[in-house]
UniProtKB/TrEMBL annotation:
Domain GH18 positions: 1-262
Top-rank taxon, per record: Eukaryota
UniProt cross-references to InterPro entries, sorted A to Z: Chitinase-like, GH, Glyco_hydro18_cat
Species per Swiss-Prot/TrEMBL record: Flemingia macrophylla
Matches recorded under Pfam families: Glyco_hydro_18
Stated name of the protein: GH18 domain-containing protein
Gene3D superfamilies reported for this sequence: Glycosidases
Length: 262
């Protein structure tokens, strides 16, 4: 039985996924993304807004999905960050970013009755110290004030050592899950054994009880990690390493409307 499955999505495609308490303990929907950039692509220093499809993902649609799947613990996450180089983490004023982010994200979280927040920046245009200070304070604020009950961070290979692993050490008590994005490995993951070995190495940094194996089903990511390699390795990661769950990016983000087109 797969314990937890997370789907990253910007629309309501989760309604098409087979969700059953016979195979899942928890199903997580991670909405991509909330961004602190305006319609002119300028950073707004923590003033976040949702960029997912607001015509399809509504409070009503989320509520209806949860009611239709009461045999599974459905949790909805708001994911802040980016895929690729656009909309990187780039605070204008590090002294006010966390307070701005806390206030703006609290409004979105309460509007959609979201359960958790996920931090998934693939590009960071700031020092490790500024990222850790700003994002760490945001996670503390949202958790300690009861705005969310769950938090996760989603590291990538290049950013893990200086940014995410240090962030985790600073605020580990406030981080429930670590969703490592294997599709962003620097070198090609050629076979399942390599992926299993990489997961094992990560256990020296993150506790096994929190560490997801993350994957992207985007065609653009297959050159680094093919579907067959991930799913074969995923079986071993779940069975041999007793990982709590896996995550998948399903949709083609390259066809997703940019925030300034909405």
């Amino acid at each position: 039985m797969l314990s937890i499955f997370r789907q990253y999505t910007y629309d309501d495609s989760y309604v098409e996924v087979f969700v059953s308490g016979k195979v899942l303990r928890q199903y997580q929907i991670a909405l991509t993304f909330a961004t602190d950039y305006d319609q002119n692509d300028s950073p707004t220093n923590g003033l976040f807004r949702p960029t997912w499809d607001l015509t399809k993902v509504t409070l009503e649609s989320i509520t209806a999905f949860k009611q239709a799947h009461q045999d599974v613990d459905v949790k909805v996450f708001l994911s802040i960050g980016n895929r690729g180089p656009i909309y990187p983490f780039k605070p204008v004023d590090t002294k006010t970013w966390a307070s701005n982010a806390t206030e703006s994200l609290t409004r979105i979280i309460r509007e959609f009755k979201i359960d958790g927040i996920d931090v998934l920046y693939e590009q960071i245009d700031a020092s490790p110290g500024d990222f850790i200070s700003c994002v760490g304070q945001l996670l503390r604020n949202l958790k300690e004030r009861g705005v969310v009950t769950l938090t996760s961070i989603s590291p990538s290979s290049i950013l893990d050592k200086e940014y995410y692993s240090v962030l985790y050490k600073e605020v580990s008590v406030h981080v429930d899950w670590v969703d490592y994005q294997f599709q962003n490995e620097v070198a090609k993951v050629a076979n399942p054994t390599m992926l299993l070995q990489r997961y094992t190495e990560l256990l020296s940094i993150y506790p096994k009880k929190k560490l997801f194996a993350g994957y992207s089903a985007e065609n653009e990511d297959w050159s680094t990690l093919s579907p067959i390699v991930f799913f074969l390795a995923g079986i071993d990661i779940l069975q041999k390493k007793k990982a709590p769950g896996i995550s998948i990016h399903y949709h083609n983000y390259y066809t997703q409307p940019s925030p300034n087109e909405e």
